[in-house]
Amino acid sequence: MNRPLLNRRLAEFGTTIFAEMSALAARTGAINLGQGFPDTDGPDEIREAAVRALREGHGNQYPPGPGVPELRTAVAEHQLKRYGLAYDPDAEVLVTAGATEAIAASLLALVEPGDEVIALEPYYDSYAACIAMAGGTRVPVTLRPSEGRYVLDLDELRAAVTDRTRLILLNTPHNPTGTVLTRDELTAVAELASERDLLVVTDEVYEHLVFDDAEHVPIATLPGMRDRTVTIGSAGKTFSFTGWKVGWVTASPELTAAVRSAKQFLTYVASGPFQYAIAEALRLPDTYFEDLRADLRAKRDLLSDGLAAAGFEVYRPAGTYFVTTDIRPLGESDGFAFCRGLPERAGVVAIPNAVFYDHRDAGAPFVRFAFCKRTDVLEDAVARLGTLAA
Ligand SMILES: *Cc1c(COP(=O)(O)O)cnc(C)c1O
Questions:
Q1: What is the pLDDT of residues 51-71, one digit of tens each?
Q2: In sequence order, what are the residues at sequence separation of 6 or more whose Cβ sits closer than 8 angstroms to the Cβ of residue 155?
Q3: 225 near 250, Cβ under 8 Å?
Q4: Does the CB atom of residue 211 touch ligand 1 within 6 A?
Q5: For residues 84 and 310, what is the distance between their CA atoms, to the nearest angstrom?
């Protein structure tokens, strides 16, 4: 048995940086701004709705494979109300075990071995692993900072398409850079997808976390895109219940059926009672979503200003709850070394963006901090980071 246990497709995905950095945080007592989960729970009434579902026996046994009808209807209503996108809750909505399963099922369903998948780099870590599990080849197109914002180079994107390209995997609002793709950028992606007959899988889990005058545009709303796009959403980030793992896919009946074929053999179903609670959450009044945005915008500014004062170059995000920084003004260039030393130096944990790149050099000087934390925690972190400037 000389063969490695972990198969070749997954060999490069042995352990994640999040495990290493969270262990470092625990060992050193540093403030963990590495992993992106909120340190306070979502709305009480939604938590109570889950308790009620459990008590009343809703979802305690296997729910229907595509998701409970209440949630599928609420997802369809949400897409219609927010974006004018009409989906049939029966044929065009699929509930998944978080966006993570939606991503895995979409790629396993739609990618043949040898197909190329274009992903925006830096990319969310599960994309690379799922493309590999599907036997596909990832083709990164790098987002680069320009005038304070990470932008998509449309020429680079066009040049990345080959005869083997099957789909473009988008993420907007974008983790880790915080960029929100503009209508112009997305229009160019849509034109390219139509011209080259490509599918688009778009991860929109941060759709409600956009700030200032940024606008979240689902690519499925653009001409010709509805029927070639798989749109992925999730309750985790929007409602601050990341442990519930309720996600969903909206797409044409054909695409939905394809994704369901893979999904049924991953988890089959998940999160029964929570599905009922999230159906209620999606119908919360607009004030919920406005308050969430206002709260996170204030936290973004608190952390961004603190990081700038500490000497980082800060790319103030238009969306998500992450801020990416450049450490070169601090005289540093290696994000890995910087993040490994930061708990000792300043009592804070962050993530080196290089882990989200194939072109590690392109990502080397960038470091990501999460601001989905209590204000007092962020204030403490900012005070600690301030010592770097001294
Ligand atoms: C958090 C996150 C996910 C995972 O969502 P779940 O619903 O928790 O599975 C997917 N994509 C991105 C970009 C994320 O940041």
A1: 999 999 999 999 999 999 999
A2: none
A3: no
A4: no
A5: 43
207-260 pLDDT, tens digit each: 999 999 999 999 999 999 999 999 999 999 999 999 999 999 999 999 999 999
Sequence-distant (6+) residues with CB within 8 A of 158 are 192
86-144 pLDDT per residue, tens: 999 999 999 999 999 999 999 999 999 999 999 999 999 999 999 999 999 999 999 99
Best of 234, 267, 320 to mutate for ligand 1, by most ligand atoms within 8 A of CB? 234
81: its two tokens: 């109300």
Pocket flag, ligand 1, residue 203 (CB < 6 Å): yes
- Picking from 249, 272, 320, 340, the residue whose alpha carbon sits closest to that of residue 30 is 340
Cβ atoms of 165 and 198 closer than 8 Å: yes
Which H helix or E strand runs over 325?
strand 322-326
Give me ligand 1 centre to Cα 98, in Å: 7
Does residue 319's CB lie within 6 angstroms of at least one atom of ligand 1? no
How many A from CA of 225 to the centre of ligand 1?
23
Best mutation site among 71, 124, 266 for ligand 1 pocket (most ligand atoms within 8 Å of CB): 124
